[in-house]
Amino acid sequence: MTDYVCIPPIKEANRITGLWRNHGPNTYPINLSLVVEHIVNPTLEGERLHLVYSEFDTFEGMLKTDDEKKWGAFVNTKIPYKGRRNFTAAHEIFHFLAHRKIMKEFRCGALNLSDYQRDQMEVEANEFASQLLLPPDLVRPHVEEDFTYSNVRSLSDDMGVSVSALAYKWLSLTTKPMAFFQSRDGFILQGYASAAAYRHGIFFKEGREVPEASTTFKCQAARVHDASGFDRGLWHSDLGGHEDVYQTSFGDFTYTFLRFF
Ligand SMILES: [Zn+2]
Prior knowledge:
Blueprint: H1 9-23, H2 32-40, E1 48-54, E2 61-65, E3 70-76, H3 82-99, E4 106-108, H4 120-133, H5 136-139, H6 149-159, H7 163-173, E5 178-184, E6 187-193, H8 195-199, H9 215-222, E7 226-230, E8 241-247, E9 254-260
Parallel strand pairs: 1-3
Antiparallel strand pairs: 2-3, 2-4, 5-6, 5-9, 7-8, 8-9
Helix pairs in contact: 1-4, 3-4, 6-7
The chain binds zinc ion.
């Protein structure tokens, strides 16, 4: 498995960011078609990467090749959000850069695209996409705002990334206790806590039931966007806080933004 780390994702993202800022347009969101054309392809010998936006039935992104020379990083245009498509494109570009010698084909769904701790290649592709599209110096000034769906959504639109990608970046930069998780059918699928929340023992295990008294549970049943305060004992034994919930229109995922105080 050591082959995986021959291209470190953060370092590679920073290298491209340096080229983009010092020798390119230095505009955000980064234009990934230009990155592929002017930064990725000129370094290849006999291979070429094409960024392809097209409609397919399952998965959000794919990397594949027929002849090991022409590679396609496919982004599903059925994804309704531009930022989400952009994050998917950056994720597939890293599978090409770092993983094409290990696997010839990748098919990535919503949970792969927000995996920061399980499958190593998925984690690396997400770390790269997050670092490239959301450089910490551009995001850090915003993380003192309230951690709510509307604030995260609005910044994710400005930065050209998915809501979940921005939520995870926000958690990695804040000094306050907060958390974000995705759930479906009453069960938590994936969740992360900020360092300050983790110090309080807050974390999210896959398969944990969503408490019936939570706003998340009510939203999931009613398919709405809702927010409310919560008392201690619901999400943490000693901390209350605020719970902001959004029901997504794809894959029936529910996004929950928790602030503790
Ligand atoms: Zn992937």
